[in-house]
Write a structure and sequence with these properties.
With 212 residues, this protein is mainly α. The chain folds into two domains: 1-38, no CATH class; 40-152, no CATH class. It is 57% helix and 2% strand. It has helices at residues 11-29, 55-62, 79-93, 98-105, 108-111, 115-125, 130-139, 151-162, 175-208; strands at 43-44, 52-53. The N and C termini lie far apart (89 Å).
């Protein structure tokens, strides 16, 4: 679907010129003697904190839930990784024009040495508060991940489910609307009856009036 020969100009030319760089980038990530399942370590937390962990230790701590909890290897300190997440955060989260986002982020991994420099430049370019940008990036940090829920997400869900409600639900008054509708129906019937009486009276008066 994304082969350059299947995409009309002028997009095909732009994509065709970017293919060699993308291939070289992927080749640099995956050593030639390693399978596609090779993990490019160390594993980092998705929140960009730089915290490292090993898959074996975390799965051991999870015990019986190890098979249902995923571990994410996304490293937001890599500009190339962060660029794709920032693109989603700008377009989908902050509703920035796609063409402007794509133009600014083109070759970002070559223009910016660190992820923080990229975020500062993005905030300045799109006139965004840095805290707003960081929040949107955090929301979309897993947009390209195919794993299931992470350990902290499952813990938050469990805590939310177990937390009792602090505010009692107020009783819903279902009688007020019914009463209003009843009054309106009575008024409509009375108006209809009055209209019938007026029409009948008018007919009688017309019939009794002498013809000139």
């Amino acid at each position: 679907l994304h082969h350059p020969e299947r995409i009309p100009e002028p997009d095909a030319g732009r994509i065709r010129s970017a293919v060699p760089a993308r291939i070289a980038y992927v080749k640099g990530l995956l050593p030639p003697d390693r399978p596609l399942t090779y993990s490019i370590g160390p594993a980092y937390a998705c929140d960009g904190s730089g915290t490292t962990f090993t898959v074996s230790d975390e799965r051991a701590e999870l015990g019986d839930e190890a098979d249902s909890v995923a571990v994410c290897n996304v490293d937001l300190r890599k500009v190339g990784v962060l660029r794709d997440i920032v693109s989603n955060a700008l377009r989908r989260g902050l509703r920035q024009p796609e063409s402007r986002v794509a133009s600014f982020l083109r070759r970002a991994d070559e223009r910016f040495a660190t992820s923080d420099a990229l975020l500062e430049a993005v905030a300045h370019e799109f006139d965004l508060d840095r805290s707003v940008l960081d929040a949107s990036v955090g929301e979309f940090r897993l947009c390209n991940c195919g794993h299931g829920p992470l350990a902290e997400e499952k813990a938050e869900d469990a805590a939310t489910t177990a937390r009792p409600s602090t505010s009692p639900s107020a009783p819903v008054d279902t009688t007020s609307d019914a009463g209003v509708h009843g009054v309106l129906r009575v008024i409509a019937v009375l108006l209809g009856a009055l209209l019938v009486v007026n029409v009948a009276t008018l007919v009688v008066l017309v019939r009794r009036s002498p013809v000139a």
